[in-house]
Specification:
This is FAD dependent oxidoreductase domain-containing protein. Keywords: Oxidoreductase. It holds the Pfam family DAO. GO terms for molecular function: oxidoreductase activity. With about 375 residues, the chain is α/β, with parallel strands linked by helices. About 45% of the residues are buried. Helix 1 links the parallel strand 1 and strand 2. Strands 1, 2, 8, 9, 10, 11, 17 and 18 form an eight-stranded mixed sheet that branches. It has three domains: about 170 residues, FAD/NAD(P)-binding domain, CATH 3.50.50; about 55 residues, no CATH class; about 80 residues, D-Amino Acid Oxidase, Chain A, domain 2. The protein has nine helices and 18 strands. The radius of gyration is 21 Å and the shape is globular.
Length: about 375
């Protein structure tokens, strides 16, 4: 079977980036096989907060701001079309988003971040700082410890689990092939195409997309690219169901449509340990009560940890491997926000070679230079 391909594209990785890319490729008419290691993998989607978020993106990268902004602009149509295809409501909304500050030090730090980002943000998408009086005018019930907030009117959220389910359902309905519980070992040249090895099996394709999260480094090494990603742990606690009280979108506290409240946003260097710690749980709870005092007497029903996928500089990485034409790599820690961009613009790059100009600067070459 040398030089043959059973499908146009193999996508390795069934997380949010992989499935969004696979769906987009099917929508463009390509035959696609999605190979997914499954729940034994470190799924970043387990810890996703569901934010569709612009306000903190792009300190030092105008390209990242533009890429994020375009994806956010795609979200209304993307959500509607995916719901029409699958019947699954993604729960997308865009009421504007707040990052609340609980001390003068936090406010000063957030203000400095907003100032750094401002030159890269378009005039109609600026993040602004709000003082305590303005926060209380806009939001009922915030605690006395809230000293201010950053705000961007384009920010919003969605039901990330519904998004994940809808992407998989849409891919299936469009005739995509999905093989779960498959661990990919290697990619090899096969004439003018490629073969992906999985134990005793192999699959051929003209092109391969690696969207394997924390597994990317292994495949990058096989095609002569440097290490790309590292893990960062986040922990989340979830309350019992409460009557609706939080229509706003906060970066660290969300009330879901079922009434439960998510509390999170920790950032920890813990290697591949995705567990929870009592210290962090206490810090999250204390911060939540300081932000919204009426949460003091609610019950916590579960908690978990998950591993984010970060590059070494926190920016995305998109690349067609320099010496392996047709082999692509994709990773970003903003997989929900960027889902429409992956399904539309990144998929067109893979399918037709139409690389969005502001993605070309996100290659792994920057990590090789820093090594």
């Amino acid at each position: 079977m040398s030089g043959t391909s059973e499908q146009d594209v193999i996508v390795v990785g069934g997380g949010l980036i992989g499935i969004a890319s696979a769906l987009g490729l099917r929508q463009l008419g390509l035959s696609v096989l999605l190979l997914d290691e499954g729940d034994v993998a470190h799924r970043a989607a387990r810890g996703n907060f569901g934010l569709v978020w612009l306000q903190s993106k792009g300190g030092g990268s105008g390209d990242y701001v533009r890429w994020t902004r375009r994806s956010i602009d795609h979200w209304p149509d993307f959500s509607r079309e995916l719901t029409e295809l699958t019947g699954i409501d993604l729960g997308y909304r865009r009421p504007g988003g707040y990052h609340l500050c609980l001390s003068d030090t936090e406010f000063a730090s957030r203000s400095a971040l907003v100032d750094r980002i401002a030159p890269n943000q378009p005039d109609d998408a600026k993040t602004v700082m709000l003082d305590a009086a303005e926060v209380r005018r806009r939001i009922d019930g915030v605690g006395e410890g809230v000293v201010g907030a950053s705000y961007n009117e384009l920010d919003g959220d969605c039901n990330s689990l519904a998004l994940f389910r809808a992407l998989h359902e849409g891919f299936n309905r469009l005739g995509g092939r999905y093989k779960p519980s498959v661990r990919v070992d290697a990619v090899e040249r096969d004439g003018g195409a490629y073969r992906v090895r999985t134990g005793e099996d192999s699959f051929g394709a003209s092109k391969v997309v690696f969207a394997a999260g924390l597994g990317l480094n292994r495949f990058a090494g096989q095609v002569g690219m440097p290490e790309i990603v590292r893990p960062q742990r986040g922990q989340i606690i979830v309350t019992e169901r409460l009557r609706p009280f939080l229509s706003m979108v906060f970066s660290q506290i969300r009330q879901l449509p079922n009434g439960t409240v998510l509390i999170g946003d920790t950032k920890e260097d813990a290697g591949f340990d995705n567990g929870t710690t009592s210290i962090i749980m206490r810090e999250l709870a204390e911060r939540a009560v300081k932000t919204l005092p009426h949460l003091a007497n609610v019950n916590i029903v579960r908690a978990w940890g998950a591993l984010r996928v970060l590059t070494h500089d926190g920016l995305p990485c998109y690349e067609e491997a320099p010496d392996w034409p047709g082999v692509f790599f994709a990773t970003s820690h903003s997989a929900v926000t960027l889902a429409p961009g992956h399904a539309r613009e990144f998929a067109r790059w893979v399918a037709f070679g139409e690389a969005p100009p502001d993605l070309l600067g996100f290659s792994s070459a920057r990590f090789r230079a820093a090594a």
